[in-house]
Amino acid sequence: MEQTTLIGVLSIAFCFLVLVTTFRLYFSFFPKKKYNPTKFIARVAMFGAFSAILYVVPIFTVNLPFIPSFLSLHFDEIPAFIAGFAYGPWCAFAVIGIKTIIKLPMTSTLCVGELTDFLLSCVYAGTATFIYKRKRNLKGVAIGFAASTLLQVVVAMLLNVYAMIPFYMNLYGINAEGLLALMQLANPAIKDVGWSYAFFAVLPFNLIKDAIVVAVTFVVYRSIHKMLRFER
Q1: Is 105 exposed, middle or buried (0-12, 13-18, 19+ CB in 10 A)?
Q2: Which helix (H) or strand (E) holds 113?
Q3: How far apart are CA 80 and CA 108, in angstroms?
Q4: Nearest residue to 204 via CA among 142, 167, 170, 160
């Protein structure tokens, strides 16, 4: 488990290093000029493809030992954040849409899991990038990340309690007792498949994921943001 987690973390770090290096090399040969819609679409597509890789490829996911195994960390929202901060919220939505569309043919949840991820990612990235668009400074970044994290966690808990858990129980034909036993293998503190699961699994899972997304997004965006300001 520890080796798999380490490989996943190192792979993610390597991918973002490649992203930063690619942008630096590109703009060293092609200095920024006036807005070009073709280049803009191409860059959004690039972020979308990168997001899809982080979403689809198993090596880029990480499981936490105290979280049920069906919840795995994936960091596909980071490219959406970077695109959203550079080009506006609609570009973040476009990136999220691209990675969702790419994942749909591989669904094992009748597309419900992917559409839920799409909604949560839009809430998360959309809120932060909209606030940053209105207040383009470190304070705007801090407020955006705080507000988006809070909103996304609340929405995730509500969706899991009232929609996702009932849906998966019906889809896989598992009763509450069987699902609870599976959850308790990872975290004995979970006492039911409702709000106990939400507070002891969904809440810490999303807080950890969001903290990593915030940290990596901040570092990467600070490294390349000047090279991305071409469409204002």
Answers
A1: exposed
A2: helix 112-134
A3: 24
A4: 160
* CATH number of the structural domain spanning residue 200: 1.10.1760.20
Beta bridge partners of 62: 73
- Which residue reads 């996943």 in tokens? 8
> Does the predicted model carry a pTM greater than 0.85?
no
The structure tokens 């979280």 sit at 67
8 Å CB contact between 121 and 77: yes
Query: pLDDT grade, residue 19 (50/70/90)?
Result: low
Q: Give the separation between CA 119 and CA 159, rounded to whole angstroms.
A: 10
Q: How many CB atoms lie within 10 A of CB 106?
A: 9
- Beta carbons of 180 and 169 less than 8 angstroms apart: no
Q: How many domains does the chain have?
A: 1
- Tell me: pLDDT of 35 over 80: no
110's tokens = 């009748």
Give, as one character, the DSSP assignment of residue 20.
Answer: H
Question: Where in the sequence is the domain holding 120, given as residue range(s)?
Answer: 2-228
